[in-house]
From TrEMBL:
<feature type="signal peptide">
    <location>
        <begin position="1"/>
        <end position="32"/>
    </location>
</feature>
<keyword id="KW-0732">Signal</keyword>
<feature type="domain" description="M23ase beta-sheet core">
    <location>
        <begin position="122"/>
        <end position="210"/>
    </location>
</feature>
<dbReference type="InterPro" id="IPR016047">
    <property type="entry name" value="M23ase_b-sheet_dom"/>
</dbReference>
<protein>
    <recommendedName>
        <fullName>M23ase beta-sheet core domain-containing protein</fullName>
    </recommendedName>
</protein>
<dbReference type="InterPro" id="IPR050570">
    <property type="entry name" value="Cell_wall_metabolism_enzyme"/>
</dbReference>
<dbReference type="InterPro" id="IPR011055">
    <property type="entry name" value="Dup_hybrid_motif"/>
</dbReference>
<dbReference type="Pfam" id="PF01551">
    <property type="entry name" value="Peptidase_M23"/>
</dbReference>
Length: 228
């Protein structure tokens, strides 16, 4: 028996120890002395215990594995969200995001408060020149109250924030939300177009606190920690 034991490869792990025990039990001579059967009984009990311990270990490992797998999936989801938010100018904790830029790729064009032949009065928003079809995302979470063609504003989506501030997204090619829909910050609401009074594809973003007159969207974003 000693020869059997030492000739087996010495591998680490309880499972190998169980295998060794099984091999040794099977190698017991049939004409064993009575005291051997007492030993046999003790060995069988030890074997049963070893198998039980092995089973418990396996179950614990399975639990750990599935816990790790779930943690991985959560990490990946968080990473994905983090990358999306970073593309829209937010670099903090994804769980605490309040505001983002409306576009990932743009060039600032006409600013707020300008006067000129294109506008009846002062320019009430900030223009972001972008490619036709560029996705527009909600700069803050809120409820969509209107998706409609609105004269010079073209296809306009209005989102009302919890504090009553209205955000207007104008000149869109397409809108992908509907009135009554609740949108999350950085959720796509439409695409850049050139509908209405527009000389080329761009987003006219308007921010109206308390649904009253407009304020400078860049100042509003800046107050939320978002810089273009
Ligand atoms: Zn504009």
């Amino acid at each position: 028996m000693g020869v059997h034991m030492s000739s087996l490869p010495r591998r680490v792990g309880t499972l190998c120890a169980v295998v060794v025990t099984t091999v040794c039990l099977g190698a017991l001579p049939a004409e064993a002395a009575p005291e051997t059967s007492v030993r046999e009984g003790a060995q069988a009990e030890a074997l049963a215990q070893a198998i039980e311990v092995q089973e418990q270990l396996r179950e614990r490992q399975q639990t750990l594995l599935s816990l790790n797998r779930r943690a991985d999936a959560r990490d990946r989801a968080l990473l994905g969200r983090k990358a999306v938010l970073a593309a829209y100018g937010y670099h903090g904790d994804p769980e605490r995001v309040r505001a983002v830029l409306p576009l990932a790729s743009y060039r600032l064009s006409a600013g707020y408060g300008l006067t000129g032949p294109l506008w009846e009065a002062e320019h009430g928003g900030q223009d972001f020149s972008a490619s036709l079809g560029e996705p527009i995302v909600a700069i803050a979470a809120g409820t969509v109250t209107e998706v409609a063609y609105a004269g010079p504003y073209g296809l306009r989506t209005i989102v009302v924030l919890p504090d009553g501030t209205e955000v207007w997204y104008c000149h869109q090619a397409e809108a992908s939300v509907y009135a009554g829909q609740v949108v999350d910050v950085a959720e796509q609401i439409g695409t850049v177009g050139s509908t209405g009074n527009s000389t080329g594809p761009h987003l006219h973003l308007e921010v109206r606190p308390g649904a009253a007159g407009p304020t400078d969207p860049l100042a509003w974003l800046s107050a939320e920690g978002i810089a273009p």
